[in-house]
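Need tokens for this chain, all 215 residues.
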Amino acid sequence: MKKLVYLFGLLACGLRCSRSGKQRPLLSSRLLALFLLTAALAACSSDYDNPPEQPDSHQNETPTDSVEITPDEGASKDYTVISSVPVSDEVKAFFDEALPNENRTPAFSFSTENKAEFFVINSQDELESRYKGESILPEIDFAKFTLIIGKAYMLGMTYHVNSLEIHKYENDQTLCVFTDDPEGLFWMAYNMYFWGMFPKIEQEISSINIITEED
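Here are the structure tokens for all 215 residues:
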């Protein structure tokens, strides 16, 4: 813009000089006007081709969406596995009968809702309060062990419970029930019962995870 004002000043000066009788014009009025006009257009074009730099409006923009990258589970574990412990043949026979894998009525009380649930039993009194059968309850050393019983509403005719684990995280614990592939028709559903004996557990178990293991 400053260049344009300057050139128009030169144009006015040149025209005055050409009309004065005291000085002889260096160029004719028309030629001088054409020259200055061309120079003015060139100056404007230069300013347009090189506009002032504008700050990048996206330079400090915070992304609205973020993607959380989950590390490979096989690379590292953020939990400790607590496995069930072996029991005597007497205890195993009792709970296999009281909590059958087949779709039969269990000898322990559960809710009638079609959902997964479990109970952590840490005393003989708690065991007796849950039991509604007629057999004699086995003696369990609850000073050293914790019994877990539960059920899960499953799609399929028959599941076989392979094992139980507790995954202990920093602030909570999850009960994991491992089963094999179901047998029979998938449009059928039934309650699968399970149990396991663990080293004494004091911390609360907040959730359950049913895991089907492929052959």
